[in-house]
Every structure is written in structure tokens, then in C-alpha cells.
């Protein structure tokens, strides 16, 4: 297949390219060229927010699958704020990200693209985590839970998801297959960094600190291997089968973690996602050290 990958310089995209680069014809795009390109791939510079429609039409021409990973980070407002702005001041940036998502959907639709894979985030439903999982009133967040976020970043990701549904329904003339990957934490876990924070705080911060933060990282972990496997599964799944025949899916993107608090049921059953890694094994020495310290209890909460 010819696959277009946006935001190709980003961390998640770079992790996810490993398997599909070996199997498909990749066209990568971003505002700047990645430092390294997989063999047999092409790169085209593009600003998805500001470039003309004609340029996007050329970019999407002949593409069968789009993997949309491009994202404007709020830290780009640094010339105004000096530092990353507080959540309440991130609305305009996130609206631009939603506009980009719409341009991707529309360009894909107009170009006859079969499938759009949107790199979403667990933050599309992070209210459940912050208010229920960390307080140990809930064990698992599922794909069918209504997307609720307590911050503009997560709200924008949920908006990407809902924005794709009319395209998938066929309301505009044909059904565009849409898959949303709610990426967990695609970063290595530094146990010492978490433990050095000392006190555990689980209610007022988006992410818990201390031992609770360490346990949260174990549950949310997405390894490089499994990120690449998730991209492969989303791009190659023979069909996308959602509710009532609408080819629209939301799946969580984490490894096969013992401490997972997000469901992998849809990713496994609908996409054939087969994660290999488990943070409980990869970070067993760190876990043992925390257990011996006597500071650990429960699953994610304090």
C-alpha cells in the first residue's frame, strides 16, 4: 500500500514506522524533515494548517491509508508565555489541531483514501483516570466509555475522534474508514525520577507523582515494539468493523501490561493487535526495589 504519515518527525511516528516501513510504500510529511528516514521512503515538507488545498490534494493523491500523527504543541506559544502555557490558555492551539484534523479528513475523503488512522491519546478520556482510577473507585476504562477530558488537550483529541464519525457514516457520499489510536505512554520508565518526588499526589494533578506515578507509568506503558505493531495492525487490518456497520473504531495503545487500566479488547479483536511486552517484566528490578521499600500498595492509587 501507499501510506502517508503526517507528523513524521514526531516521537510516536518515529516509533510506529518500524514495521510498516518494511512492508509498504511510505510518504512522510512534516514541517521539517526527520533526522533519519527509513529506507525506501519519501519525504515531502508540508504545513497542514497553512498550506493551500492544492498542495494537500497533491500530497494525498494515490494514497490508500493515512496515518495522522502531526500535532502543534502548546509550547510553540513560548514567545508569548515564556514557558508552556497553563491548560486554560491552550484553547486556540488545540483548535488549530482540530482544524488540521478536519483538513486531513477532508483531503483524504476527496482523494479517495480508504482509511485514516488518527493518532489520538488516552487523554481523550482522562477524566475517568484522574477522578476514578487514581482514587481506586474504578479498575478499567473501556473504549465504549463516553470521551470525557478535564483539559483542552484531551478535549481536542476527543474532538478528532467525534469529527471522524460523519466521514465514516457515509453521510457525504462514501464511507471513510477511521481508526483512532489512544496512545498511552510511549516513553521508557525512569523509576528513580518518580520515587525522587517523594510524596504521592493523586487527585489534583493530571498525572500522579511518587509511587503512584510509577505505578501509573507501568500501566500506561507502550513499548517501541508494540507501538510499531499497533501502527501495522491499524494500517493492515482487512476491514474496520464498528457499531452498526460504521467503519469507525477507538482503541487504546498500550503494551500487554499487567497493571493496565485501559482496555485492549477492541484493539485485539477488531485490529488483530498482538502486543508482546509487559512493563511488569521489563521493569521487574525497579518494581522489586519499590516493593522492598514498603512504600507500595494498591494498583494505581496511593
UniProtKB/TrEMBL annotation:
Protein name: NAD dependent epimerase/dehydratase family protein
Organism for this UniProt entry: Aliiruegeria lutimaris
SUPFAM superfamilies on file: NAD(P)-binding Rossmann-fold domains
InterPro entries for the chain: Epimerase_deHydtase (IPR001509), NAD(P)-bd_dom_sf (IPR036291)
Domain of life: Bacteria
Spans through the membrane: none
Domain NAD-dependent epimerase/dehydratase: 3-235
